[in-house]
Design a protein that fits this description.
Organism: Luteitalea pratensis
CATH topology: Dodecin subunit-like
Radius of gyration: 14 Å
InterPro entries: Dodecin, Dodecin-like, Dodecin-like_sf
Structural class: alpha+beta
CATH architecture: 2-Layer Sandwich
Pfam families: Dodecin (PF07311)
Protein name: Dodecin domain-containing protein
Number of domains: 1
Shape: elongated
Number of helices: 1
Length: 67
């Protein structure tokens, strides 16, 4: 039997939402073992002078606990 835990994280990128997701998962995997998936809870953009300058995702990362 496996037991999983969920941790909420936020990640940003200057490129895209996809890049923010990739960066967030990569960073979470440095600290959390057995990352199995993520649910993208929210997406936000920051604008300056009418242009998107930053992409942000808030996600729930699921990882399986060690026995």
């Amino acid at each position: 039997m496996s037991v999983a835990k969920v941790s909420e994280i936020s990640a940003t990128s200057l490129k895209s939402f996809e890049d923010a997701i990739q960066l967030g998962i990569a960073r979470a995997s440095k600290t959390l073992r057995n990352v199995r998936g993520a649910w993208i809870k929210e997406q936000h953009v920051r604008c300056d002078s009418g242009k998107v300058v930053e992409y942000q995702v808030n996600m729930m990362v699921t990882f399986v606990l060690d026995d």
